């Protein structure tokens, strides 16, 4: 995969902390930052997915007339209970 250079400016205290943690984990500061960023982006995607699910379920609950599942009960009974 092609790589690119990304310049990051941070205060010395933060950079020192990054280097210390990276050293403890026996990885480069670059690898540590990439892993942290990837993890953060993954969590952002999960939060967005959860937000969309929540919005969808909230929308379903607003109008019970258009969200009825009563019509599916006989079909579900037939599939799951063989009756």
Structure description:
Helices cover 69% and strands 0% of the residues. It is mostly helical and 83 residues long. It has one domain. Helix 1 crosses helix 2 (29-62). It is elongated, with a radius of gyration of 25 Å.
Secondary structure layout:
Blueprint: H1 12-25, H2 29-62, H3 73-81
Portion in strands:
under 5%
* Global morphology: elongated
**Helicity, in percent?**
55-70%
Which whole number gives the mean pLDDT? 86
Give the C-alpha Rg. Answer: 25 Å
Q: What would you call the quaternary organization?
A: single chain
**Integer count of domains:** 1
Series of secondary-structure elements, N-terminal to C-terminal: HHH
The low-confidence parts are none
Main attributes?
single chain, elongated, 83 residues
What's a quick, concise take on this entry?
The protein is mostly helical and about 80 residues long. Helices cover about 70% and strands about 0% of the residues.
């Amino acid at each position: 995969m092609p790589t690119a250079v990304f310049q990051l400016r941070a205060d010395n205290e933060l950079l020192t902390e990054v280097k210390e943690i990276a050293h403890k984990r026996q990885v480069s500061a670059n690898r540590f930052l990439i892993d942290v960023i990837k993890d953060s982006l993954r969590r952002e995607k999960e939060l967005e997915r959860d937000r969309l699910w929540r919005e969808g379920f909230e929308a379903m609950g607003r109008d019970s007339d258009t969200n009825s599942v009563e019509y599916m009960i006989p079909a579900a009974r037939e599939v799951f209970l063989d009756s």
